[in-house]
Design a protein that fits this description.
2 helices, 328 residues, Porin, 11 strands, 5-stranded antiparallel sheet, alpha+beta
């Protein structure tokens, strides 16, 4: 009876070990692949050796009336379950990131056009009335020597069917420029509304200096909203003539430029070439400023005639009185 229980116990133990090993083998599962990671894991190839438990033959010898239990010589083979090395091969990370295809929509913000309305430009109008002012201008050569001296008041007078007015050149708003050559020189007076140019000629034959070319340009509104341009040229002249080394001087003079336009020059003095110590030479007066002796001469002649007549009349009257007192 005891021997039977022993065999049953051994059988149950071996069966339990076998099922336990099988269950453990089945419970091993491959690692789950991470969703984003495409790693491929090889299945668990663990090989479990079969249970090679060897039961020794029952060598129990039963003595008469003496039960001798043979020692339990059951030799249980060591668990030779060999776990194969984990041959899980991780596939290279083949996760391919798609290129950044984010497309930014173009900036479609539309700015409203600048609708700022500028104030309309006021119509051109005449400048406020002003007085003639003497301006001092000069032109120097490449060596810094003055070749033209000019001192004058300038008015550009327009006398047409539409306009009868004078534009006055302001010295503080006028810039002189020009050039100097051996026998010619020029001066240009530039102002906001236009310009005036005088060209001088040094005549060695006549031994005098004079202006042979006058040019002007004027853009001005003599009436509000009526902006007009006037221009002209006058050549082949002998204006402002003076001896070499002298200056031309005049109180007032007018140069007609055509088309109803005249240059009114006043209180002026001009000299080109032969300027010494940066000062004007002796003045050569214009005809208007030269003294006229004809009237005094005429008056003197008339007085002499009257005196002669009176003397003759006196002598005649005295002779008649003498004749009336003759002796008898």
């Amino acid at each position: 009876m005891g021997r039977g229980l022993l065999f049953i116990s051994i059988f149950i133990a071996v069966t339990a070990l076998t099922y336990s090993s099988a269950f453990m083998a089945k419970s091993v599962s491959p690692n789950p692949s991470p969703t984003p990671n495409t790693t491929t894991q090889a299945p668990n190839t663990t090989t479990q050796a079969p249970n090679t438990t060897t039961l020794a033959p029952n060598t129990t010898t039963q003595a008469p009336n003496t039960t001798t239990l043979a020692p339990n010589t059951t030799t249980q083979a060591p668990n030779t379950t060999t776990l194969a090395p984990n041959t899980t091969t991780l596939a290279p990370n083949t996760t391919t990131q798609a290129p950044n295809t984010t497309t930014h929509a173009p900036n479609t913000t539309t700015h409203a056009p600048n609708t700022t309305t500028q104030a309309p430009t006021p119509p051109p109008s005449p400048t406020p009335p002003t007085k003639l002012t003497v301006g001092n201008y000069n032109v120097t050569d490449g060596k810094g020597n003055i070749c033209i001296l000019a001192k004058l008041e300038i008015g550009i007078r327009v006398n047409t069917s539409e306009v009868n007015d004078t534009f006055i050149v302001q010295p503080n708003m006028t810039t002189p420029s020009g050039k100097c050559e051996t026998n010619t020189a020029s001066i240009t007076l530039t102002f906001k509304e236009g310009s005036l140019t005088l060209k001088f000629n040094n005549s060695e034959t006549a031994k005098k200096v004079y202006v042979d070319d006058v040019e002007y340009s004027l853009t001005y509104a003599f009436k509000k909203g009526d902006l007009k341009t006037y221009s002209g040229k006058n050549k082949s002249l002998e204006l402002f003539a003076a001896a070499q080394g002298d200056s031309y001087s005049c109180t007032a003079e007018t140069v007609y430029m055509g088309n109803g336009v005249s240059l009114d020059l006043s209180n002026y003095r001009l000299q080109a070439f032969n300027i010494k110590n940066d000062k004007f030479g002796a003045p050569d007066l214009c005809k208007a400023d030269k003294p006229d002796y004809r009237v005094p001469i005429a008056v003197g002649i008339i007085l002499i005639i009257l005196i002669v007549i009176v003397v003759i009349a006196y002598l005649i009257s005295r002779k008649r009185r003498t004749d009336g007192y003759q002796s008898l």
